[in-house]
Amino acid sequence: MKLPHKIRLLNHKLLHPNNADKLEPAKNSASLTRSYLHNWRSHLILIETATLAYVLIRSLLLGFDCSRIFFYGNNSAKLADFYRKWQPYIKEGKTTDAILIMKKYILKYWIVISTLAVVAVTEVTLRLALGLGKPVLSQTDSDTGYRFQPNQKVYRFGKNIAYNQYSQRSEPITIEKPQGKLRILMVGDSVLNGGNFIDQSQIISELFEKKLIASAYPAEVLNASAGSWGIGNQLGYLRKFGTFNSDAVILQIGTHDLLQPTSTGEKIGKSSNYPNHPPLLAIEELFTRYGLPKILKIFRIRSKATQILQSGDTDNLFQQNMNSLKAMIEIIRSQNTPVFVLFTPNLNELLYAPEIPQYKSRFIKLLNSLEIPIIDTHADWSKNTDEPVKNYFIDRMHLTVRGNQATTNLLFEKLCVEQELSACSTTKP
Predict the structure, then answer these.
(1) If I label 15, which of 75, 119, 200, 301 is the partner at 20 to 30 A Cα–Cα?
(2) Quick check: is 287 in a domain?
């Protein structure tokens, strides 16, 4: 099929600008070409394309949130200046040469341009839709091993995540407890923290706080936690920051924590799961944090931690953790603060024929000897049928929103309904 002369002429000009006159017809085709190029639609498409390219490439190279280019600081001024530079050309009809040059290079380097466009669009999509490229950051700490960097607000996978000035997954607080408020400090591991896939409003501490407030208890519940924290890490946090003048402290301890070694800050800044600074690109984080581990999992490479637990002295490790627990209780009670233990099980300990977790009986015996009340989700959930219990877990140990809600209900029942926490009754108006 033969192309119209006007289109053939334009293509020839783009590819062979020095010989374009050889294809000029007798009639004034130059004026036809000019009118075609001056069409307002062509101008609009050019401006939009150039602007989009500017935004995407700048986001890709500088790692900016795309929205900031439009709405924040000097970036918006630069973009406005970009528009102003094009206005005289549009008004005076001088865009022909610019368009020809631009199309020439597009035709010549279309593979490179297309690749960059795909990368740029992917980068922006990952940032705006999933929050990749801006992870929650951690830092090493001589007391806690590591903790989350203070004063962070992050949007990840459609979930809001925030940490206050004391690395708590809570709103900013004052050291002194607000007058007339019930303050509860919860300390724990990733189960209490909730991770990236649980919104700030749906973690255990936030749900518990809302339930207290809804029941006319003015309250704030603080959440000091981090993934892979053991009992030794919890002890380090209390030694560093104290109890924040709380009316009660709840220690969340799971089955896995009984034999969990105290985690160190060795992985901070070295492992993609424990970044201490944001990656250059969201694409980079997608591969290193979520893609590469799945590839390595195919080869079933055992972790160092797994090897330690398999070959180590578990009795000795359990005793070390119990010593850390005793030290925590001593710190809390030195402030004349009531202390409770929230015990969380693994999924396999609840399904089909509920079993007593390893070392749980020795753990309970120690708590009884220390007169520490226990809120035992394992005992409570063992009474349920299999299907509801499955819905409480994301994986073998971490809880869904339903699991968090069930935990919250049990906390409220034990502490306030059964009045194991006397501050519940005294705080209520």
Answers:
(1) 119
(2) no
